[in-house]
């Protein structure tokens, strides 16, 4: 059977408009010689849940001790002005994983009583990019998108993670002693007596110890210190503090988080891989005030205003620390955002970055080489409040009848260079500036279709069809498509797949007797760098006689 080839623009690319108009700096530049980071490092992303900017010692915390995070910040790169994608869980995680802010991302709100919002097949996560290029990938902790369904497009196994262990939905993650957790496509029944953060730490340590030749990505979205303030055992050094029970236990949760981070760093060192690993530590939004926790006691937002759910700085500015023995200590004041993480990780892994992202790589800020500055940053909770920061200025627009706003809504304007606490509203003095910022905000929100990216496989007409979709900004040259697996099919070569284009090649199905794991592969060159993408076929059984 001859291979067939379709080399044409994908449907979505046609919908997405012109590539020529894209001005986004590409993350796929060749690595700087003196970058200080090894090529294709292991990557660990630790995401705290509802940890405020001011809740770690290196950002000025006085009551809660975080000696391990403080040491990490001292040895590594501490960002003073890092923002989450949203002031609450699901949209913040969507931005982190997909490189899109909440004006473009798939998930822009937490559900209010309804089902958990889902990621889709169009969402290319940082895990998918790294998995395609040969990283071993795991997500251990709270995923935060529904439904709880194996094989669903929103399941972490379908979004680039070889391994998933944890909670799928965010409400389930409120149970610190869960009755079950998901491991890949199965529910693991538990006795309700195991503290989930302990299980997560244990599995993450094992995952690091399983390091082999391939680099790895460990995404570790812990539930700490999200409410309820449940800990395992006693309150440790906070037991005798004259605070409410929830506040003592909240402090103990942060202590536990600090110890979990220490355990992961220790494991990296003991496994001998620390030198070629980059660890990012951040939080998904500002501090919570739930179930008796009072952020005022701890000054959890530092000098900033408000907390979780607000688009004031306290809701969206978060700790961000980058650590690797290969990095020199530095403090970075340039604003970066959660949607910069995907392009940064793609840059580090040398993978062509998807087109139409909102983020930029901040790799150069880790090494002192500099990185492109955002013209503006936006946060979008359509039914509550929206915000935009451009340089020193920040404008906020509340939805009608929200937060004391009247039926017309309310606009506020702050100069963050002189007023980081957002106390002096200048909207009445500078209505022109506020209007200009809000016009930019409005133009930043939309539903651009995503351009398909990556490798996919499907079984049709007695063949396994491998499709390579160039959803990046640069041509992919000398493309060779083929199969790994029980019987290596002969590769098929084409000269070039342009941005927005796809190529499909059909290969004969492996015979029933050799049924097993089949892996599609694409070898190509992008911007002078050779690439190898591999993807394991999922779904339909791989035998000729199983095809209807
Ligand atoms: Ca959160």
Give the C-alpha Rg: 23 Å
**Unreliable spans:** 1-34, 541-548
CATH topology of the largest domain: Alkaline Phosphatase, subunit A
CATH class of the largest domain: Alpha Beta
β-strand number: 23
**On the 0-100 scale, what is the average pLDDT?**
90
Q: What does the overall shape look like? A: globular
CATH homologous superfamily of the largest domain?
Alkaline Phosphatase, subunit A
Major sheet: 11 strands, mixed
Q: What structural class do you assign from the helix and strand content? A: alpha+beta
CATH architecture of the largest domain: 3-Layer(aba) Sandwich
Helix count, DSSP H or I runs of 4 or more residues: 11
- N-to-C terminal Cα separation, in Å? 18 Å
Q: Any idea how many domains?
A: 3
Strand % is 25-35%
Q: What proportion of the residues is helical, as a percent range?
A: 10-25%
Small-molecule binders: calcium ion
Quick take:
By secondary structure, this protein is of the alpha+beta class. The protein folds into 3 domains: 5-11 and 451-546, Immunoglobulin-like (Sandwich), CATH 2.60.40.2950; 49-134 and 193-367, Alkaline Phosphatase, subunit A (3-Layer(aba) Sandwich); 382-443, 2-Layer Sandwich (Arylsulfatase, C-terminal domain).
């Amino acid at each position: 059977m001859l291979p067939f080839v379709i080399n044409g623009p994908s449907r979505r690319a046609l919908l997405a408009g012109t590539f020529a108009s894209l001005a986004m700096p590409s993350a796929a530049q060749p690595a700087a010689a003196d970058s200080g980071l090894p090529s294709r490092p292991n990557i660990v992303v630790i995401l705290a849940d509802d940890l405020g900017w001011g809740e770690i010692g290196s950002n000025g915390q006085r009551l809660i001790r975080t000696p391990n995070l403080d040491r990490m910040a001292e040895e590594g790169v501490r960002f003073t002005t890092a923002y989450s994608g949203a002031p609450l869980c699901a949209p913040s995680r969507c931005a982190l994983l997909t490189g899109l802010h909440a004006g473009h991302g798939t998930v822009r709100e937490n559900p209010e009583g309804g089902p958990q919002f889902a990621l889709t097949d169009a969402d290319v996560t940082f895990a998918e990019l790294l998995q395609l290029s040969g990283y071993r990938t795991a997500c251990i902790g709270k995923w935060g998108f529904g439904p709880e369904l194996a094989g669903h497009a929103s399941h972490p196994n379908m979004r680039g993670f070889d391994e998933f262990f944890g909670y799928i939905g965010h409400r389930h993650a409120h149970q610190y002693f869960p009755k079950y957790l998901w491991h890949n496509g199965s529910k693991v029944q538990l006795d309700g007596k195991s503290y989930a953060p302990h299980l997560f730490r244990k599995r993450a340590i094992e995952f690091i110890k399983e390091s082999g030749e391939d680099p790895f990505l460990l995404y570790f979205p812990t539930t700490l210190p999200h409410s309820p303030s449940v800990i395992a055992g006693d309150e440790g050094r906070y037991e005798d503090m004259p605070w409410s029970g929830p506040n003592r236990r909240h402090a103990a949760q942060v202590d536990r988080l600090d110890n979990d981070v220490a355990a992961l760093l220790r494991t990296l060192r003991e496994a001998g891989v620390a030198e070629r690993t980059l660890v990012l530590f951040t939080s998904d939004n500002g501090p919570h005030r739930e179930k008796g926790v009072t952020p005022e006691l701890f000054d959890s937002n530092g000098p900033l205003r408000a907390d979780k759910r607000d688009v004031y700085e306290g809701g969206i500015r978060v700790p961000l620390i980058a650590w690797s023995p290969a990095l020199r200590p530095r403090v970075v004041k340039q604003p970066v955002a959660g949607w910069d993480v995907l392009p940064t990780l793609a840059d580090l892994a040398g993978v062509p970055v998807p087109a139409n992202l909102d983020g930029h790589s901040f790799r150069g800020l880790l090494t002192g080489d500099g990185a492109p500055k955002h013209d503006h940053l936006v946060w979008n909770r359509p039914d509550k409040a929206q915000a935009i920061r451009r340089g020193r200025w920040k404008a906020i627009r509340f939805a009608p009848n929200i937060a004391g706003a009247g039926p017309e809504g309310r606009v506020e304007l702050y100069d963050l260079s002189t007023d980081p606490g957002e106390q002096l509203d200048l909207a009445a003095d500078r209505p022109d500036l506020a209007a200009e910022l809000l016009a930019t905000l409005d133009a930043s929100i939309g539903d651009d279709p995503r351009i398909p990216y990556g490798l996919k496989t499907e079984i049709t007409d007695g063949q396994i069809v491998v499709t390579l979709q160039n959803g990046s900004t640069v041509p992919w040259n000398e493309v060779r498509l083929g199969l790994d697996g029980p019987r290596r099919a002969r590769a098929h070569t084409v000269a070039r797949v342009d941005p927005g284009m796809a190529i499909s090649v059909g290969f004969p199905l492996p015979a029933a007797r050799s049924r097993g794991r089949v892996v599609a592969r694409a070898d190509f060159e992008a911007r002078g760098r050779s690439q190898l993408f591999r993807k394991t076929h999922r779904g339909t059984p791989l035998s000729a006689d199983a095809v209807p």
